[in-house]
Specification:
Length: 83
């Protein structure tokens, strides 16, 4: 019985860390957009375009992981996932 609680606590901790990382990535994305909006140098424009694309990809990945975990909670909240 104690093993189930440890697995859920571990999973909840990972979920919380994932949400923190998602929030941090959202902040990074907002910052990259703001930087892109304020540059006029062509090389910097290219740099911030790549940064926006990179952070968008990270955000999409993290968001899909959050949704995957939330779906596993919805299916059976008592059963620990294999991740």
């Amino acid at each position: 019985m104690n093993r189930i609680f440890k697995k859920n606590a571990c999973r909840d901790k990972r979920y919380a860390l994932l949400l923190e990382d998602l929030d941090r990535t959202k902040h990074d994305l907002d910052s990259a957009y703001a930087n892109l909006a304020n540059v006029i140098e062509p090389d910097l424009i290219d740099c911030y375009i790549y940064e926006v694309q990179s952070v968008q990809m990270r955000y999409k990945f993290l968001l899909s992981r959050v949704k995957q975990i939330e779906d596993s909670y919805a299916k059976n909240p008592l059963e620990a996932s294999g991740s």
